[in-house]
Amino acid sequence: MKTPLVLAVIALFYLLHQDWWHWPVARPLAFGFLPVGLWYHALYTIAAALLMAALVRWCWPAGLEREK
Amino acid sequence: MIPALFVLAYLAIVLYIGIFAFRRSRGQSEDFFLAGRSLGPWVFLLSLFGSHMTAFAILGSSGHAFNFGIVTYGLMASSSALVVPLCLLFLGTRLWSAGKRFGLITPVQIFRDRWECGHIGTLIFCLQAALLVPYIVIGVMGGGTTLSVLSGGLIPFWLGGLLVALVVMSYVFFGGMRGTAWVNTFQTVLFLGFGAVAVTLISQGMGGFTAVTQRLLDNPRTASLLTRENFSLTTFLGYTFNPLSAIAFPHIAIFCLTARKVTQFKRTVVFYPLCLLLIWLPCVYLGVAANQATDVPAIAAKIEAKAATGRPVPGDDVMLQLLGRYAPVWVAGLLGAGIMAAVMASDSQILALSTMFTEDIFAFYGGKERFGETAQIATGRLFVVLVTAFAYFTALNAKVAIFDLAVQYAFAGFAAMSPLFVGALCWRGSTKWGALAATLFVAASTITLYLLPRGFTIAGFAPVVPMTLISAALVWGVSLLTPKPSAATIERYFPPASV
Fold first, then answer.
1. A32: nearest CA in chain B?
2. B448-478 pLDDT, tens digit each
């Protein structure tokens, strides 16, 4: 159950990277100067860090530590 | 000239760090090439990140954004924020484990051990070495460009590149992996700090963030740079394959073996995306903003050339030109040193090539047995000198922009090699024949890529996409049809308890 769920979350993240809905527009501007296409991907980067924290917490390859 | 003096002082500091590391060395090959597998969590994170970020990250990204706009960030930074940590988490930890358990130092040694092969490993070494050279060339080019621009042309490109090449060669020669890791840690702290300071100072100099963006939006020539309307979605999608190259880069794979404990990957995996954000967001924004810097003669000339030809222009120096114009002299010097810190990541690549040559060729073909460990390290050092000299003379004649050089050859080739790592570390059924088929295909397709016109695509996708998919299909398909390694080897790599 865990592996398909992890794969589905990673696939969803991959899809979210292709933000075609922002493609031809610059507005709204975050903080009055960051175009939405740049702002979205900056937030995406932060979300990726949170995803990694979750993967490290729940999907850490613990077997590698035991094998030492 | 004053900013260039700061950079020269910085070069002296990193040289000292390398020589200091030399005094800590124990004269063993594992100590020289892997720092005795002793790197702590923060040094591991910062040095691994620093070795991945090169001139490409600061000079290449801002130059690309100058020409193509904000799309640059999504193309390379946010896609890397997802793909690179995943590679480190699921492949890097397995590389570390195999290296630690079986006393292996290079990816080729792991392939040879895992697939019970000899000369196929040599072939993989040749391909990895050939693909890594363009990446080393990027570092030398970035060094030459930085010193030349910061000194106002007093230090010519050839001399700047030579100085950087000599300093890098010296601290790698003496300090080995320990010196390289320490220098990379220092450099990463410096260039992570660079981004925020640079974007604030330069934007203030240009009238503030809001004014800069507004002027870009008001100008019909630059408004599209704040969108991605001139960039196709398929190309954007294809670029997400490039970060797969990270785990196949020899310098990153070898860095994975230097961690003291596997748990040290945890911090690296989580913080990697945030480090990317800190360095890429300011560089991309400033690259786009440079289109408003018409009061900088060098940039004004580029803007004119872009408008006249409708084609991209060389933009690797726009960040340096902005610094020279808008930052106070002493700050420009410090920031120039920050740029140089990123540019000089070629150190770990030179060391990786040297490590691979001495372990995968010299030791494998009996050199270590015949001449001893001291001769092996001496051979590694000689190789450092030869590779640096070759990279320097190639950089003097390179006509391609840093971003293009990286994307077209190094990223595409190494991304297409990533299925070898997945096969070796995650799939019991992979065989040396599958690896051989994929390696030959990657070599042939990279040569073809070199011969094709730049910007060549297949069904709208950059070559990296079909190259990676076909390479993966070859590892899988050929492995299914060919005999497996012995059961004992498979059991060693995939013990019943492993996850």
1. B210
2. 887 777 777 888 888 899 999 999 999 999 9
C-alpha B287/C-alpha B202 separation (Å) is 11
CA angle (B164 as vertex; B159, B170 as ends), nearest 5:
125
ipTM surpasses 0.90:
yes
Q: Do B213 and A35 touch (CB under 8 A)?
A: yes
In chain A, where the domains are located: 28-68
Alpha helices in chain A (DSSP H): 2-17, 36-58, 62-66
Phi–psi pair at B39, nearest 5 degrees:
-70, 135
Domain boundaries along the sequence of chain B:
2-95+124-401
Residue environment code for B11-40, b if the CB has 16+ CB neighbours within 10 A, otherwise e: beebbebbeebbeebeeebbbbbbbbbbbe
Q: Residue B71 has what DSSP assignment?
A: H
- How far away is chain A from the Cα of B85, in angstroms, using its nearest Cα? 7
What single letter denotes the amino acid at residue A61? P
Smallest Cα distance from B166 to chain A, Å: 36
- Cβ atoms within 10 Å of B450's Cβ, excluding its own: 9
Contact present, B49 and B237 (Cβ < 8 Å): no
Distance CA B312, CA B308 (A): 11
- A6 chain-B contacts, CB cut-off 8 A: none
**B412-426 vs B432-451: helix crossing angle, rounded to 10:** 170
Contact A52, B270 (CB under 8 A): yes
Class of domain B2-95+124-401: mainly alpha
Tell me the residue type at A68: K
**How many Å separate Cα B407 from the centre of its chain?**
11
pLDDT of residue B399: 62
C-beta of residue B427 within 8 angstroms of C-beta of residue B493: no
CA B130 to chain centroid: 14
A40: phi then psi, degrees, rounded to nearest 5: -60, -45
CB contact under 8 A, B227 and A23: yes
Nearest CB to A17; choose among B82, B96, B228: B82
Condensed to tens digits (0 to 9), the pLDDT of residues A6-43 reads 999 999 999 999 998 888 898 899 998 899 999 999 99
The low-confidence residues of chain B, meaning pLDDT below 70, are 1, 23-29, 55, 341-345, 398-409, 497-499
Number of other residues whose CB lies within 10 A of the CB of residue B317: 22
How many C-beta atoms surround the C-beta of residue B227 within 10 A? 21
SS (H, E, C) B335-382: HHHHHHHHHCCHHHHHHHHHHHHHHHHHHCCCHHHHHCHHHHHHHHHH
Q: Give the residue among B174, B202, B149 at the shortest CA–CA distance from B25.
A: B174
Cα A19 → chain centroid: 12
CA distance B227 to B204: 23
* Calpha distance B400→B64 (Å, rounded): 12
